[in-house]
Write a structure and sequence with these properties.
- The protein is about 30% helix and about 20% strand.
- With about 475 residues, it is an alpha+beta fold.
- It has four domains: about 90 residues, Uridine Diphospho-n-acetylenolpyruvylglucosamine Reductase, domain 2 (2-Layer Sandwich), CATH 3.30.43; about 120 residues, Uridine Diphospho-n-acetylenolpyruvylglucosamine Reductase, domain 3 (2-Layer Sandwich), CATH 3.30.465.10; about 110 residues, Alpha-Beta Plaits, CATH 3.30.70; about 110 residues, Alpha-Beta Plaits.
- α1 runs antiparallel to α3, α9 packs across α12 and α13 runs antiparallel to α14.
- The protein is globular, with a radius of gyration of 22 Å.
Length: about 475
Amino acid sequence: MTPDLRARLTRIVGPAHLLEDPDTRASFETDWTRRFTGKAPFVVRPGSAAEVAAVLAACSSAGQPIVPQGGNTGLVGGSVPRSGEAVLSLRRLDAIEAFDTVAGEVTVGAGVTLEQLQHHVRPAGWDVGVDLASRASATIGGMVATNAGGVRVIRYGPMRHQVIGLEAVLADGSVISRLPGLLKDNSGYDLPGLIAGSEGTLAVITRVRLRLIPARPARAVALLGLPSLDAALEVVRTVRAAAPGLEAAEVFFPEGLELVLRHARISPPFPGRYPCYLLIECAGPSDPAPALAAALEPLADPAATLIATDRAGRDRLWAYRERHTEAISAEGIPHKLDVTLPAGRLAEFEASVRTALARACPSARPVLFGHAGDGNLHVNLLGIAPDDETADDVVLRLVASLGGSISAEHGIGIAKKRWLNLTRSLADIHAMQAIKRALDPAWLLNPGVIFDPDSFAPPVPRLP
């Protein structure tokens, strides 16, 4: 960092929020998986949108590239430095501002965590449409930037669907704003929709206006042991049609459950072992348990079915699914590949990917779990070196061959960019690059994420 840039940034944010000490920077330089890490020349922590704009203007004039960072819960290497980028932390933008309890809308700073927002709006009878296990650390700005999905997509859609408007800063420090946000607004391009899911490559999100959902206090959770993923998908189809209020349909498998039991030190849900486990949650203004139980009765084995309606019981059943991530990380540094398949090919993929991995990469230990209602499976690979991408190639090629997407909700980051051309045409990629060049001509915002300047980096051969 040049003396001039240091002086400018110190004036903007104050010396306490310009971090250069290696020990102080360390937590900002490695992502959640521990697979991706780098060194930042500094970390800057602005406390307002105006400070973000001033920081970006200063860095732009100095030619200093930036990695925007929220809660640093990303899994594809897109939130940490790689080649001399500084980290722009948005955590101090943590104000919850306008909350319209009549319309069910709220404006929040990019650094507000999902859990903070949930606690703020629930007493007024509202909730956030997206929920995920990292709620205590995932920030709203980061969730919008990556178009986070989570467990409720089956009912409410991903983060992009919750965004009414936003404020963001471009690489040169200019501010674009669509706040407070209107449900009906067709005045030009949908910039919030474009910035959502752009992984910090187009602009730095500073404030977001979200639509909320009515809180549904009555909830029922069921956990089932089933003979196959096909059987689980049939249960989901039946419950979706017969029981109102389906909000989550999560699947996991014996290898993941065994890790959870060992690392979380909890008892197994059933005496026996099953090839597939399905967790379902329904919610509504009144108790959804009777309708859920009636829908499950012809399909589920009573000896392998648990239903809970009280908070402690629901949390106990959810733990078998939500504690997968920490249990996998306790085993080692995983390769984390979240993918989406067409609904009709999800079971085919689950069986085929195990076979393909055993043949091509015998040392890989696949641990699968995911969202049965929207076709999204998280393929976690243990037992392979962090930089060995043989197994990644097997998984992502299989996904593409079955008509799926190589990224369901975590983004491309740097982990998947060389496979982008498997599911995006050259015309698609050139169009995205043109947008990037228009908004960030010097490639200072998260350079190298999604694709490299003017040529996505080196692509794998397309499928025949």
